[in-house]
């Protein structure tokens, strides 16, 4: 007798020791959260996250060990938008300065600085403490500004700085994410209620997904001490964890239900689900992990962090589906279908048969060549806008102007351009050359004063490290970070800086800043993208070929996933590079897509789409092994898997679409891109392209091999129920 697969052995132990398995899982999740909280999170530093010359500038600056103090800029302007009364503005600045000096959080208050055009007065304030938690200590300063504003009618007094900007953005964006989390949970539950028609059955996948997210967040905190993480990791873990966690539970739960309806005993149904859907979950999770691992080849700290978080949460979700899910189903028994929601329970199909899906599949099965041409043509048409995709880093101009601190930033940079976009010149040289370095930098600054591409409202100050080896200076430009003028000013500064320092022996210099980071990051991704894409395609090809023992299935999987990814990129470019959807999605088009998004989207989409592909093709292969010809196998495989695939896709689209409502443009683009891709994959690929392609290929689907000799379905069914599955690895 053949030894049962590991998925079946694990499921059988969990099902026969349900409370032990549930207790062990609860202890595992609690331990992960405790250890992660105790260890804390190691964030990516500026010098670790930079690439190219801007990354080198960050490392040079970091080597100077400068003491960074939180800086606040208090801007005094006229409410009318014109020039404020000078005497009134000066009086307000004096009163505010006195209030600020009395605060324990304030270290120093500078002299008021009038704007060159007379439209504003700037009061510089330096806070005590470090920059990390300035947002939690800035409220007394904001209260002082508000009090002075109330006592001076006609003046607008607002703050922009280390603490106030972080606080203003965190409050608004934090509310965004809280809203997304609050909406996503009931939305997922509602969709699952429609799928199962019972409250407990709907709650089980959500419970497992949430526990997987919790455990992954704790493990991610531990991993951050090896690979520091970016602030977006928590959001990505939530997004990926809810998506795959619910999906994997759906695969397993739906198959167990199906087998019970066919007459299998409870434990036998669990065995079959573990043998089939359990195996598919392992394969699907492996393909997602393989795809996400490709991000490490980007050789960039942020991508490595996102890859680590995603891999952890997918691995935990797979573990949950294989271990604690069978235990929950065994402990619940028939209660899993209780309490029933009357109307929804009647809508839930009982027989496994459906009239809808055979009708939808008719075109692909009757005229596969024509269906293939039309559906592929439609996807290629959607992909056309991607040919003109422009990539740029996100910046302050992408933020909603409904945020008060963003409007304040606009007014500050309009009056004092040097406070807005700036380039950071970093120089490292022997301490003995300090005087020559400062002289060279002053010559450089004099040269920028004669060029309109640079800001001239204030003379930049040169900073020197305590050991006299590192010097930095911030050179402003009056143009937005992603403008052509800002790009040209960077090019000039990068050409002028080495020339100015040429006579200094042992010197090392670099120009960084937001503009430079965007240019360098985009260029770095363009160079690394072929390696990432090639890795994902090759590993996916090998994985699929080994799973299905068919090179044809592997190649078709690659082609279909490339097609859906290209179409989603086209949708992304069409929506966000133009203005027609601005009111609909509440954003301001910058004419570009966020530079990190296409690569991340490609990897995520390839992994998630492969989930569905593995599940559907496995059902088709199972039907073919049971004696059906290719057309009947395609019909049966897709019809029987359609319910769970559609349900999982609706959950994913719902969760991803919520991210499209957030204020930050990168998350808005991420949500829209993922939702569009999953929708296209579940509808066009699974209903038209895949069945048409497999029907057209016929027996060539299993090239270069052939399927084992067909066996009678009822014979196979008998063997499976009695613990001797006919063919391993079919869901």
Q: What is the CATH C level class of one domain, in words?
A: Mainly Alpha
**Helical run tally:** 26
**CATH architecture classification name of one domain:** Up-down Bundle
Extract low-pLDDT stretches: 710-731
Main location: membrane
InterPro entries: MMPL_dom, Mycobact_MmpL
Keywords: Cell membrane, Membrane, Transmembrane, Transmembrane helix
Protein name: RND superfamily drug exporter-like protein
Task: Provide an overview of this structure.
With 731 residues, the protein is α+β, with helices and mostly antiparallel strands. Among the domains are: 191 residues, Multidrug efflux transporter AcrB transmembrane fold (Up-down Bundle); 98 residues, Alpha-Beta Plaits, CATH 3.30.70; 110 residues, Alpha-Beta Plaits (2-Layer Sandwich). The chain has 26 helices and eleven strands. Strands 1, 2, 3, 4 and 5 form a five-stranded antiparallel sheet that branches. Strands 8-9-7-10 form a four-stranded antiparallel sheet, with helices on both faces. It is elongated and about 90 Å long. The C terminus is likely disordered.
Layout of secondary structure:
Elements: H1 6-16, H2 18-39, H3 46-49, H4 52-63, E1 71-78, H5 86-101, E2 106-109, E3 113-114, E4 121-127, H6 134-137, H7 139-150, E5 155-161, H8 162-196, H9 199-223, H10 233-261, H11 266-293, H12 301-322, H13 324-332, H14 342-347, H15 356-366, H16 368-383, E6 391-392, H17 404-415, E7 422-428, H18 434-448, E8 462-464, E9 470-476, H19 484-500, E10 508-513, H20 514-548, H21 551-576, H22 582-585, E11 593-594, H23 597-625, H24 630-659, H25 665-697, H26 713-721
Parallel strand pairs: 6-11
Antiparallel strand pairs: 1-4, 1-5, 2-4, 3-4, 7-9, 7-10, 8-9
Helix pairs in contact: 1-2, 1-11, 1-13, 2-9, 2-13, 4-20, 5-7, 8-9, 8-24, 9-10, 9-12, 10-11, 10-12, 10-24, 11-12, 11-20, 11-23, 15-16, 15-24, 15-25, 16-21, 16-25, 18-19, 20-21, 20-23, 21-23, 21-25, 23-24, 23-25, 24-25
């Amino acid at each position: 007798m053949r030894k049962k697969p590991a998925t079946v052995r694990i499921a059988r132990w969990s099902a026969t020791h349900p409370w032990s398995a549930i207790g062990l899982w609860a202890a595992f999740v609690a331990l992960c959260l405790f250890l992660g909280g105790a260890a804390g999170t190691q964030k990516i530093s500026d010098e670790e996250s930079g690439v190219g010359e801007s990354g080198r500038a960050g490392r040079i600056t970091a080597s100077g060990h400068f003491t960074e103090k939180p800086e606040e800029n208090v801007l005094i302007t006229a409410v009318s938008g014109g020039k404020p009364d000078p005497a009134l503005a000066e009086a307000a600045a004096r009163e505010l300065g006195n209030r600020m000096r009395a605060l324990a959080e304030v270290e120093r208050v500078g002299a008021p600085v009038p704007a060159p055009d007379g439209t504003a007065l700037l009061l510089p304030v330096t806070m005590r403490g470090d920059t990390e938690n300035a947002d939690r200590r800035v409220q007394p300063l904001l209260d002082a500004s508000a009090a002075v504003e109330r006592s001076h009618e006609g003046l607008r007094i607002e703050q922009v700085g280390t603490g106030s900007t972080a606080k203003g953005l965190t409050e608004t964006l934090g509310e965004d994410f809280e809203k997304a989390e609050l909406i996503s949970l009931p939305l997922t539950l509602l969709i699952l209620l429609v799928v199962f028609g019972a409250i407990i059955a709907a709650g089980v996948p959500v419970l497992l997904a949430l526990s997987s997210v919790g455990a992954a967040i704790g493990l991610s905190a531990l991993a951050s001490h090896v690979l520091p993480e970016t602030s977006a990791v928590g959001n990505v873990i939530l997004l990926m964890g809810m998506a795959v966690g619910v999906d994997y539970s759906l695969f397993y739960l739906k198959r167990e239900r199906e087998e019970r309806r066919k007459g299998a005993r409870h434990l036998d149904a669990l065995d079959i689900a573990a043998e089939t859907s359990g195996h598919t979950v392992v394969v699907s999770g492996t393909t997602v992990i393989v795809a996400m691992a490709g991000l490490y080849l980007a050789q960039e700290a942020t991508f490595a962090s996102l890859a680590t978080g995603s891999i952890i949460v997918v691995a935990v979700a797979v573990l949950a589906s294989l271990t604690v899910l069978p235990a929950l189903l065994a402990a619940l028994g028939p209660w899993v279908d209780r309490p029933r929601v009357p109307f929804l329970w009647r809508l839930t199909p009982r027989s496994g048969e459906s009239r809808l899906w055979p009708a939808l599949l008719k075109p692909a099965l009757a005229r596969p060549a024509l269906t293939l041409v039309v559906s592929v043509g439609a996807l290629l048409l959607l992909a056309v806008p991607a040919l003109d995709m422009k990539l740029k880093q996100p910046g302050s101009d992408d933020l909603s102007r409904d945020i008060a601190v963003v409007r304040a930033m606009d007014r500050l940079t309009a009056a004092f351009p040097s406070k807005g976009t700036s380039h950071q010149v970093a120089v490292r040289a022997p301490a003995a050359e300090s005087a020559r370095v400062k002289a060279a930098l002053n010559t450089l600054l004099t040269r920028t004063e004669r060029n309109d591409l640079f800001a001239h409202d204030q003379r930049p100050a040169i900073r020197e490290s305590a050991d006299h080896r590192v010097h930095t200076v911030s050179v402003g430009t009056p143009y937005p970070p992603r403008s052509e003028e800002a790009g040209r000013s960077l090019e000039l500064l990068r050409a002028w800086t080495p020339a100015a320092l040429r006579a200094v022996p042992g010197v090392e210099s670099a120009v960084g800043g937001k503009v430079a980071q965007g240019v360098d990051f985009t260029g770095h991704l363009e160079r690394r993208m072929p390696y990432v894409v090639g890795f994902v395609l090759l590993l996916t090809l090998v994985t699929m070929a080994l799973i299905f023992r068919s090179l044809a299935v592997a190649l078709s999987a690659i082609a279909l996933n490339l097609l859906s990814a290209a179409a989603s990129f086209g949708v992304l470019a069409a929506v966000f590079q133009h203005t027609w959807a601005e009111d609909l999605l509440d954003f301001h088009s910058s004419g570009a897509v966020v530079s990190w998004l296409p690569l991340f989207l490609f990897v995520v989409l390839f992994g998630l789409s492969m989930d569905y592909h593995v599940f559907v093709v496995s059902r088709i292969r199972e039907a073919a092994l049971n004696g059906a010809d290719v057309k009947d196998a395609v019909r049966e495989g897709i019809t029987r898997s359609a319910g769970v695939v559609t349900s999982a896709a609706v959950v994913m689209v719902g969760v991803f679409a919520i991210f499209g409502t957030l204020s930050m443009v990168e998350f808005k683009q991420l949500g829209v891109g993922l939702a569009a891709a999953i929708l296209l994959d579940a509808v066009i690929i699974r209903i038209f392209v895949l069945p048409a392609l497999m029907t057209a290929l016929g027996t060539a689907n299993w090239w270069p091999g052939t399927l084992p000799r067909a066996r009678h379905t009822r014979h196979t069914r008998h063997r499976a129920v009695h613990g001797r599955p006919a063919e391993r690895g079919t869901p």
